[in-house]
Design a protein that fits this description.
GO biological process, one term: signal transduction
Pfam families: PDEase_I (PF00233)
Number of helices: 23
Structural class: mainly alpha
Bound molecules: 2-acetamido-2-deoxy-beta-D-glucopyranose, zinc ion
Number of domains: 3
InterPro entries: HD/PDEase_dom, PDEase, PDEase_catalytic_dom, PDEase_catalytic_dom_sf, PDEase_CS
Number of strands: 0
Strand content: under 5%
CATH class of the largest domain: Mainly Alpha
Helix content: 55-70%
GO molecular function, one term: metal ion binding
Radius of gyration: 22 Å
CATH architecture of the largest domain: Orthogonal Bundle
Pathway: Purine metabolism; 3',5'-cyclic AMP degradation; AMP from 3',5'-cyclic AMP: step 1/1
CATH superfamily of the largest domain: 3'5'-cyclic nucleotide phosphodiesterase, catalytic domain
CATH topology of the largest domain: Catalytic domain of cyclic nucleotide phosphodiesterase 4b2b
Amino acid sequence: MHTQRNYDLQRRGDPMGIALIWSLVVMLVRWMFSKRRGAISYDSSDQTALYIRMLGACVIFKQLFSRDVRVRSQVGFEPERRGSHPYLCVDFRTLHSRSENARPVPGRRVHRLFSFQRHLHSSRRLHSATTWPYNPLHILDEDYLGQAKCMLAKVGSWNFDIFLFDRLTNGNSLVTLTFHLLNQYGLIELFQLDMVKLRQFIVMVQEDYHSQNPYHNAVHAADVTQAMYCYLKEPKLAKSLTSCDILLGLLAAATHDLDHPGVNQPFLIKTNHYLAALYRNTSVLENHHWRSAVGLLRETGLFSHLPAEDGLNMERQLGSLILATDISRQNEYLSKFRRHLDQDDLCLGNASHRHFILQMALKCADICNPCRPWELSKQWSEKVTEEFFQQGNIEKRHKLEVSLLCDSQSNTVGDIQIGFMTYVVEPLFSEWARFSDTRLSQTMLGHLGLNKASWSGLRASGSLEEPEPEPDPDPPPPPAPGLAQEPQPQKIPPPEP
Ligand SMILES: *[C@@H]1O[C@H](CO)[C@@H](O)[C@H](O)[C@H]1NC(C)=O
Ligand SMILES: *[C@@H]1O[C@H](CO)[C@@H](O)[C@H](O)[C@H]1NC(C)=O
Ligand SMILES: [Zn+2]
């Protein structure tokens, strides 16, 4: 209890009054879903992925595959599974038992978070909030919410500090921001979205991000959504995008890394993760993010009032946008973008061209960290590196080959960033600036240059905070072409000349 509370306080920057309200919202949503879940029928051709999602299949390497087959082959839902929270867990502890002795892991060790556990969790938090001795809660609330509101007035600013916003909203940046943007665009009315379903959907999206991931968590999703909003406002897009495009763009941004396990695709492949098998080693994570989003859309019935054809079309387009964030396919998209720009044949009256531009916008939003002001950019760099190194440490501990960029002995934050900026970010954003030659594009390229210079300067002056890598008989490979921030480094084609 004590540690739990400390954790909450640390993470949430502690305006407990808001925690209380949110706990109530979350409890309400969970309660409603504990009634509904399991009663949903699918008519999709890809039932498998959805079943997995619905059952909250959590995975243990090696053993997991047979378990997953078993889970999937169940026709109905066992009563006690009802209400289980869909949540992809990679249980690293069990890697150990795999490498040492291939004992089958007892079923109990499949970690599931049932919604009633979440209720308990929430109500405990609720309890501690109400008994907390020094709590001028109402004052804190107004103060924090007031500041968050103030920030929302400038939500289109490129300097928007999403970390601060997340603290002010008590860890609810993604919910607050997404709801605000949909509302501001009038999309809720236009698409006649049910407020209760919408809130359920957004809360569940936020919850299905793993807050323990240093980088791929709900704050990253909120950051990408905010960047996406900045791009949607750019004149060329603003005057041609339809409401449907905007809705899709914002939803895709908010869900694009949903249920990210905090490790990359090569890791999932080499540990025989069921998702790698399910998606045949191809865009494994992105497929899962998309399917997870579709799962939540269907669970909440957010689009159930639309004609079935429109709903399916939304799901398809959402998928096409999310799949475009697979960084290993960057050159494919970039070449197509270049070709269009060279031939000057993009016609934003054409729906498929608009869709392509949305894909490019989402790609930019996803990797725009190096284009933010240094103070923000630096924080993101540290977080993504922490996630890489965390994976590297797991790989070392379990005697797996350490993935590119994931070895804390041979990489530094600065080196990773310089490679990433040079081979991935610059090429993308310079094309984007050709397409949308605006002040924002110039600002982004400006920050990119300055941030790169800062990392180079830090490296040159040797004042990096990381320890110097130990001398290594095998020198680390030179920064690979196409270093990936979204960690999928092995499949990246070389940069174009
Ligand atoms: C995925 O990659 C692994 C490791 O390279 C391989 O063993 C497996 O057969 C591949 N699966 C598919 C469906 O290609
Ligand atoms: C829109 O663009 C696509 C791809 O360039 C093309 O195949 C299609 O014919 C265009 N549609 C219209 C209505 O111009
Ligand atoms: Zn992302």
